[in-house]
Write a structure and sequence with these properties.
The chain contains four helices and seven strands; from the N terminus they run E-H-E-H-E-E-H-H-E-E-E.
Length: about 140
Amino acid sequence: MKHISKSLEETGEVARGFIEGLKSGDRAVVVALAGELGSGKTAFSQAVGSFLGVKETMQSPTFVIEKIYPIDFQGFKNLIHIDAYRLEKDSELLHLGWEEIIEEPENLILIEWPEKVQGIIPNEAKKIFFGHLGDNARSIEYED
């Protein structure tokens, strides 16, 4: 599915539509957010957090790498926002307990810059691709 967003509100609508289709399963749901700098990954993550009831402002966790927010949505209890931009190899994410995090079915994980740690992103991860289309326009593309 391909969407064109021309505002934060439209990005929020896309995020809501995407998230409403997710359900917890046997393992964590991993959502890989790929795209160049400034293409809308963090705005999408913030929209997801807002929709799921996160009260605090979600900043991109570039320096802390990972932030965990309690949620209660369709079997999910934790929204985990990861920014892999500063990571140089898969093992750096493993040191943060990645293997345990992805085994917990109550976790919904949003990971920005998944290409930095592509060797450990599960094959079943949902992939969303973001792109610049001009001033405020962004493309947001994913498979249903």
